[in-house]
Amino acid sequence: MLQKKWWHEKTAYQIYPKSFCDSNGDGIGDLKGIISKLDYLKELGVDIIWLSPIYCSPLADQGYDISDYYNIDPRFGTMDDMDELLKEAKARNMYIIMDLVVNHCSDEHQWFQKACGDPEGEFGKYFYIETVKDGKLPNNWRSYFGGSVWEKLPGHEDKYYMHVFHKKQPDLNWENPKLRHEVYKMINWWLEKGVAGFRIDAIMNIKKPNIFTTYPADREDGLASIENMIRDAVGIDEFLHEMKMETFEKYNAFTVGEVFTDRPDALKAFIGNDGHFSTMFDFSETCAGKNEDGWYKCQPVVCGDEYKACAFGTQKRLGDLGFISNIIENHDEPRGVSHYIPAEDLNDTSKKMLAAVNIMLRGLPFIYQGQELGMTNVDFTSIDQIDDCSTQDEYKVALKAGLSADEAFHAVLPFSRDNARTPFHWNDSANAGFTSAAPWLMVNPNYVQINAKDQVGRQNSVFSWYKELISLRKNPEYKETIVYGEVIPYKAEQKNLMAYYRKGTDKTLLVAANYQNKAQDLKLPGTFKQVLMNNLDTLDLDGSTLHMPGYQVVILEL
């Protein structure tokens, strides 16, 4: 039986600080900018705020390469600003969670600098450093960002270190108890300071199989997918349990894991009542249409029956085991409305449909900044406009596969992480009101049409729709049903119809969405008491048959 927790009925919101709000006119978002917008988030209905990394970093991977876990990067402000943010959030009954990035650090972290000075010493054992003879690397694993996971250790001709992500992100050696103790000490320092918990980054990578394992090459580069490493690693549960008991458990902290695994026991192990984390993200929709050969072979749009199958599949597997976190997009994905709705169908009606079918599922809703406005992918015109290292690598993969420069660019563009990292649209003034300077990354030109100033307070806006969904989820009359009620698919066989019951102890709701641009009819299961939400002004009902225009979604109380 699922144990009820304080955070189950909350709504979470991810902030990508660099692109949220710039308070000092340097083109980069900062903590003071976030503080100035807390009332905006409060009006939306947000309770938990996840901050993408704000620690000191060279920004090789936009802050996920941390050079000092105990300090705020000056680009984002000071520790005093952080303390003020915690205080102001608390005054609004909001919770701040940090990004916990402990699979790797930056090559500019003092641990790695000391390891370079003495690879055989104490800090050399904080990393995976191997002596290489005759140029034969320990294994043929391909990093997530392309190329070998092995890089020459600065100052040493015969020694190499492992990085499963960017070469400026050396992997930490979790087999070393001394390293683990340092990580736990840092986590507890932040919890003592008042953060409510953490989003746990790339955590499945902390456990490696034997690092001298070579796999069959799967591309012409002679390397093998890093997914092999994840699949063959055994024993991660011991590390995660130890971390939980040494840190999170002591503070009743909220934790959400970035977990990619097909382990049959994963849900129970990671988010069961005694699981390693409070919750974990459901990535089934974001993984749909992917191809191991590279982005250029991925499916640009996932919608209709495919989206439905992913969502229902997770809910079925989950049952009453634990509480999942549902997302439409995040900082590592393109904009959800551009990925889950065909370009020709993209409008406020379809955006509201997508929001409803996602947020009404069982689980904790995570909204990514700008999602509540319906922000879209960007029509970048050149690879030179792209900052994201992952996109740059996938562009090279596409070129090597034989695509022309133009074909390669347009093949990877729909998946670029920069689609979601462009500055937030506050208003229709210069630079979308994000900054008074030149922004660090270009602003999506459609900010004139899509911005917060236009939408906040406008009754039929996407923002107001999100606000209403969040409010319905918290409504005392329906909260128990929406938060804890069963998800039971309805008419699952009907093409491009995504309909499901939310069945509680005393109430039953029906969420029904026509997930296509053509009208279709839905035979209702019986009479209903009232329409709780409808993204269109009309309800075309003929007896028990509901005539649904394209992308209509309704939430009915039965």
Number of helices in the DSSP assignment: 18
How would you sum up the global shape? Answer: globular
Low-confidence stretches are none
Task: Please name the fourth-level CATH homologous superfamily of the largest domain.
Answer: Glycosidases
Strand order of the largest sheet: 11-10-9-5-2-1-13-12
CATH top-level class of the largest domain: Alpha Beta
User: Which bin fits the share of residues in helices?
Assistant: 25-40%
Overall mean pLDDT: 97
Quickly give the structural class: alpha/beta
Strand content: 15-25%
CATH architecture of the largest domain: Alpha-Beta Barrel
Quick structural summary:
29% of the residues lie in helices and 16% in strands. The protein is built from 18 helices and 21 strands.
Q: How would you explain this protein's 3D organization?
A:
By secondary structure, the protein is of the alpha/beta class. The protein has two domains: 12-104 and 178-386 and 424-462, Alpha-Beta Barrel (TIM Barrel), CATH 3.20.20.80; 483-557, Immunoglobulin-like (Sandwich), CATH 2.60.40. Helix content is 29%, strand content 16%. It contains 18 helices and 21 strands. Strands 11-10-9-5-2-1-13-12 form an eight-stranded parallel sheet. Strands 14-15-16-21-18 form a five-stranded antiparallel sheet. Strands 6-8-7 form a three-stranded antiparallel sheet, with no helix packed on it. Strand 10, helix 8 (266-271) and strand 11 (279-280) form a beta-alpha-beta unit. Helix 5 (177-193) runs parallel beside helix 7, helix 12 (348-359) packs parallel to helix 17 and helix 13 (389-400) packs across helix 14. The longest helix is centred in the first third of the chain and has 17 residues, at 177-193.
